[in-house]
Design a protein that fits this description.
4-stranded parallel beta sheet, 15 strands
Amino acid sequence: MDDFEKVKAALPIAAVVGHYGRNITGKFVNPSFCCEHKDCFSVDADAGLWKCFSCGKGGSVIDLVMTVENCDEGAAMRTCAALANIEIASASPRNDKTESIQERMFRLAAEYYEAAMSGSPGEEYFCKTRGHKPATLKKMRAGWSDGGLLSFLEAQGLDIEDVVKAGLAKVFPAKGEIASPSSDPSTGSGRTDNPPRDYFWKGLVIFPVIDHAGKVVSFTCKDPEKKYKGLMLKGAKKTWFLNYAALGRHDELFIVEGENDVASLMDTGFDNVIGTAGAPCAEQIKLLRNFCGGKPVYLWFDKAPSKAPKKNEGGAHHTRFLCDGLRGHNIEIKIVVQPGETKDPDEYIRGISQI
């Protein structure tokens, strides 16, 4: 019996369903892990199989973990083996797939940025200006953009067109200053046939988004000069959180907004924190429903009286959005409001740490 069959034989499907905070009632799990519909996610406990009749997906306990966590077979194997409390020889997918082009590119990019951080102005900004601990810097694998990523990736044998397609490089307007990496060359002035350059221009602190399998799935950044906010790769749904790997791995969870909020809680020893990277979205609601069933979550967002909740702005909007989305899903919601005039978790924690 190979490891895949060993895991499937040792792990009841009810244990996986329960791990994600849901129960089997009769033959159904409600709502469906796939589509959130009712009475369509059927489970055969004796055979260890499941089927969603709304979207057509189905399979074993390993396929269920792949569906819920949006991970590959190897990562699902590791999760299932841990739940079954058994050791496996290898967690590689059965067809021995190698990294995709984008997976390799993102991994190399994260390593490049991380290496560039040491001794850079970004390290000074993160540890001195923002006051975060060097240990937190390493936990978050924060990096520094020096404008040389595209050349580095090309030297590793990656095609420039693939780098542009993945979002790590972009063709910017040739005339005038670069306004931001979100600038659209088609609407800018000047020529647009100049060579691509790094999407994250020189002088930004970069944060890789790493999933439960250890794969880099996206990037966000902070501008030490505070000219631009909320910059991340374009074109993909935000099906992740900052400190994504913490989701589902703790008995309780803090949910904050930005990178510095996450870092400040980590500074004080709270690794059970994730960040929405701006306004939370529907995809993040689904992740929280899947991972946080039966657990308390603490919503701690900015106090921003000048923001307009009806325009999807500010902490009040984010809190209400998450409360509405999580209500009725067996999740204990708690709201944190810091005292005093501080505007966000980062500012509050930095303030009390100096007392």
